[in-house]
Design goal:
The chain has eight helices and seven strands. The two termini are 26 Å apart. Helices cover 44% and strands 16% of the residues. The protein is α/β, with parallel strands linked by helices and 233 residues long. The chain has a seven-stranded mixed sheet, sandwiched between helices.
Length: 233
């Protein structure tokens, strides 16, 4: 997987540098290559469930490993991420994130970071599409508990857009750290949308309840009991 990343990046670079479509095709082609090899070599089958949004929406997703990033991005037509600033300096990934106008956030400056995030999102809204935010702010291991960050609620209010929650179980099969992999069906599921108009607290409670409940269900489907002994986030 990692050996092929720079190869895909270089092959598509002449197109990607001048076209967001080229950058998206590169990232989706690479992701599909990873899905194919994951199934062939370690028995992981990737499955997307639910109604995939097509228009301009906010996507608030559960994040467990690198695999759910690729699955969500590949399923959506014109997606871009809100991500931690450090990723911009990652070889290949950082360069393509810039080409796709992903929004980088400095997590060490919470209040200023949220305001900057909102401003950057507003500045890029001429490119209609799906804005993906990981509401817990980082990868969270199966069974671990971590709070949902207020930034998702701020964006929901400021953008006045429909929010589509996304649940997953991929961390059961493809952990956030290490090289171990477990065969099975890795799922990301797009849930019923949350329409604009809720208060921030009500929205955050609705979002967390839906995502956690469905993620727990999907993890049980993959053979993991989330109500057992929880790991540290």
């Amino acid at each position: 997987m990692y050996l092929m990343m720079p190869i895909f990046g270089l092959v598509f670079a002449p197109w990607a540098i001048f076209s967001k479509k080229g950058a998206r095709v590169c990232c989706k082609s690479y992701s599909r290559y990873v899905f194919w090899t994951a199934r062939l070599l370690v028995g992981i089958r990737c499955e997307v469930r639910g109604t995939v949004p097509q228009g301009e929406v906010l996507i608030a997703a559960k994040h467990q490993s690198f695999l759910d990033i690729m699955m969500i991005f590949t399923a959506l037509p014109t997606a871009k991420f809100i991500m931690k600033r450090e990723i911009l300096y990652t070889p290949v990934i950082g360069q393509y994130a810039k080409l796709l106008d992903c929004v980088a956030v400095d997590r060490g400056k919470r209040g200023a970071a949220i305001q900057k995030m909102v401003e950057d999102v507003e500045a890029g809204r001429q490119d209609a599409g799906q804005l993906i935010i990981y509401s817990q702010g980082t990868r969270v291991a199966p069974g671990a508990k971590k709070e949902y960050k207020v930034g998702t609620g701020v964006l929901y209010e400021q953008l006045n857009q429909t929010c589509v929650p996304v649940a997953t179980n991929v961390g059961v099969l493809w952990p956030r750290t290490g090289i171990g992999r477990k065969p099975g069906t890795a799922v990301v599921e797009f849930l019923d949308p949350i329409e604009p108009g809720l208060g921030r607290e009500s929205f955050m409670e609705t979002l967390e309840t839906r995502v956690e409940a469905k993620s727990d269900e999907l993890m049980r489907e993959a053979g993991f009991e989330p109500d057992g002994l929880h790991q540290n986030a």
